[in-house]
Amino acid sequence: MVIMNGPVASIFRRTGAWLLCGMVLLYGSVVSASDAGKKIADQGAAHASAVACASCHGADGGGNDVSGFPRLAGLDAAYLEKQLQSYRDGSNRNPVMASMASSLSADEVRDVAAYYAGLDAVSHARAPANEPTDTGKKLAEEGDFSVRGLPACVQCHGPGGLGVGSIFPPLAGQPFKYIKEQLAAWKSGLRNNDPAGMMKHVAKQLTAREARSVAAYFAAQPVSRGDREGTGKSAAKAAKPAVYSGPLPHLGEVTSGRVAENDYFSPPPRTDFPDGPFGEKVRQGEAIFNHTNTHTVSGKYVGNEQVCSGCHLDAGRLANSAPMWAAWVSYPAYLRKTKTVNTFIERLQGCFKYSMNAQGSKAKHPPAADSDTIMSLVSYAYWLSTDAPTGDSLIAGRGYMKVPETDRGFDPVRGKVVYEEHCAVCHGADGEGLSAQGEVVFPALWGADSYNWGAGMHKVNTAAAYIKWNMPLGVANPVQMSAVLTDQEAWDVAAFVNSHERPQDPRFKRNFATTASRFHSSKYDYYGKLKQPNGKLLGENAPRK
Amino acid sequence: MVIMNGPVASIFRRTGAWLLCGMVLLYGSVVSASDAGKKIADQGAAHASAVACASCHGADGGGNDVSGFPRLAGLDAAYLEKQLQSYRDGSNRNPVMASMASSLSADEVRDVAAYYAGLDAVSHARAPANEPTDTGKKLAEEGDFSVRGLPACVQCHGPGGLGVGSIFPPLAGQPFKYIKEQLAAWKSGLRNNDPAGMMKHVAKQLTAREARSVAAYFAAQPVSRGDREGTGKSAAKAAKPAVYSGPLPHLGEVTSGRVAENDYFSPPPRTDFPDGPFGEKVRQGEAIFNHTNTHTVSGKYVGNEQVCSGCHLDAGRLANSAPMWAAWVSYPAYLRKTKTVNTFIERLQGCFKYSMNAQGSKAKHPPAADSDTIMSLVSYAYWLSTDAPTGDSLIAGRGYMKVPETDRGFDPVRGKVVYEEHCAVCHGADGEGLSAQGEVVFPALWGADSYNWGAGMHKVNTAAAYIKWNMPLGVANPVQMSAVLTDQEAWDVAAFVNSHERPQDPRFKRNFATTASRFHSSKYDYYGKLKQPNGKLLGENAPRK
Known about the structure:
2 copies of one chain form a homodimer.
Chain A: H1 6-15, H2 33-43, H3 54-57, H4 77-89, H5 95-102, H6 106-118, H7 134-141, H8 145-148, H9 154-157, H10 176-188, H11 198-205, H12 208-219, H13 233-238, H14 276-290, H15 313-316, H16 324-328, E1 333-335, E2 340-342, H17 344-353, H18 372-384, H19 412-422, H20 424-427, E3 434-436, E4 439-442, H21 460-470, H22 487-497, H23 512-519
Antiparallel strand pairs in A: 1-2, 3-4
Helix pairs in contact in A: 2-6, 4-5, 4-6, 7-12, 10-11, 10-12, 14-18, 19-22, 21-22
């Protein structure tokens, strides 16, 4: 709603006002904030031009499809509040809304935001005629990560595009026209209030046709959905406060990389999923890979809030992000960790044991070699590896790209600053992660819902390598060789993340000191070394769950 | 000892006689056969030229290294008897031995053979100076099957070249000169008393240098060996009568094949075994593959006398002989047999369940997915598959080559004739197989020591395909496209083999009729269909062991 042309401009001229929600509180302190917000919404603020929000956004807050006025009902209050602030401060340049928002006091902004947040989600958006949505659906649900570094919309906006927390608004049920115009605004820089420049980065890569298709797709999506399959654990998780109150990260200088000469192995596209029972296993394997903790088949083996695709981006396809195809052709292999030769299946079981903290799961142990879970993941990894050369353990793109050590080493205190600047917006101020619709959207980085002290990621060097080239999601990219964090920042923030308590190492039997010396002697490992505020060493009283 | 030149000819001229063993029985019927044989051996036969066998073959029957006279002590009696017959009938053309052998009566031949068979194995052969044995060792122990269709010497002559039954004599401890000259005689046709032309076929492929190296290798091998690692079961097996008394198969017309354009995948050579713990697993995997039933790691899961390499020739390397590399890149896959998707590991477990009859083993069940046995076999198969394209389930050389169905179908009665002509010499008149040194040399084809009613090989079509292109060993070859049996013969003999009782199908729970109809409805399957001499249907009372 920035470029005023066609019907939008004509509506503006006709009504003389847009989305006016900012007005005085008629009843002052004797009415509740909600009542105050409703008043502004329905009748407008007395001291302003008296155009109610509802006149454009609908009496029920469901928006206006033809004019492209967004739905407000059921959106996150902090998000709505922030948008009004953006109109005021110019980080979202829209003359009409700027005027409306500027007329509201801080309290009024808060009240009207709270009012719309409290309404039932509703939408009047409709699927536009003659707009094909196949491309949009693919970009929305899968993105185009391995080729263009483009994450799926739902990776941040949550399952079904229903929104996540206070930063990532719902896209489902927003008018086609609205979404299309917002994408144009991110691209042109008229709208500039996104964390870490993520939306700018995404929007710049979309062609106009793709943007239309994405917009058409989301316009037709329902604004709520029934309970999804799951273990039930995630419902509690979803109830966690998911409001981020810190500063928005700005987009640091992106280390402009060369795009690697396209010499990485390419797994087959999803359009080539095989048929028959094997194809079903492959599809189920992908579903488990992306929804490990909630999937009906695999959920019982997961004792935290993690999914495979949290560490293996693009559903295990992305080169230099520990892709499955590189692992598949490299196993069986001798592992220093187990001091024996392990099959690919055993390596998968290791992921469940450590990264998924199986000890705290319903099953209490990783899935058996012949379980449906393993069978599906194996089928999926095998299929992703179609035509990859067996035994090529040096295949380009395996694992993560190491980050060179720096003269300053790594330091959690310095890392805390980096974390708050770049990471907390998605992963939470206390590393707790963010879920939506019962699904993990941004995984927990420490605490009970994170990987345990046996997972590879608890080592600072491994985490630094992952973070440097993969975070923030969709901006850093290990194939395009683009990064936001400096090497030093990657080391420091990895140190900060891994200097927090997390679930116990499942190899712990009785003796803490023995476990520490036997499994945690690495200089990249804080287990048994760093003192927590409670006086205990990290890992000393780590919970099993 | 056919081409008389150099030292051999000079010894002949000096002594005036060679290996004279045929003489009269001085004591007639009052002495035992053994005594009579000893008399001939030590003193010669009175009615002949009175040259004792011992004068050339040594007082202890240990042979003469310089002259190239073979050791006789400890060789199989039937074998020795047959050799004397061959000198008489000209199928081994040697003028001196022909004269000696012709002077003996049938009883005398039997007696002297029995005498030498009863002596402790001994040899005076020595490793020749300046004869490299690396090539010989490789040909002796590994052969060159995948490239030239050349089986290892020990595949027929038994572990250590110590001989197997009455057909395959020991090579260990035979003089360098003797072995070298015999190979030349097979090649030239002067010696022509081998079953199915096997030795001719082998000898023709060896260069003179290779023949020398093989001869040098075996000359230096010990004539007996201590107990080998094993489960103990095989000791009993080795005690089975292993004398074949039927006619020797002749070499039928070999369907001269084109050698396939070398377009099959080539697994890495054994000289490239990897180092370290993974390499150890690979080596152990190969050892298990070749000695499955006796290996200390895998033996407890094998309830019969079978080895992986019995059905997967050249240790799982040979194209069109169900090679491991083709299987590796084809799993996981949906199997009609299990009605689900199976991993390679599960497929291996299936081999143990059925082909190895695990129900009758010490463990009573197949090895677990994380067992050392599976781990080793997986490592071996994976390594054999180095550089093979993942997922290429259509890779050339997978499985066996089918045999077209014939108008006459298949018939066990006709098959019996084929079996006796071509197969019984190695696999035994009653399909019992042949072991030596506690190791399976020729696997049992039916009965308690064979694959059970669930194994793929129990189907007539599968067995026909295997037999046609792989049997007789080293003559038929599925890469060179050479065969001895006609399609009709292959079908019929497969029907004969699979119309015998064998261990019960492990899927049998309670009801025979249900098992028969559920798992054995194929027209290639005799389970539950053919009446045995005891009046029961095949499978009806099949034992679990």
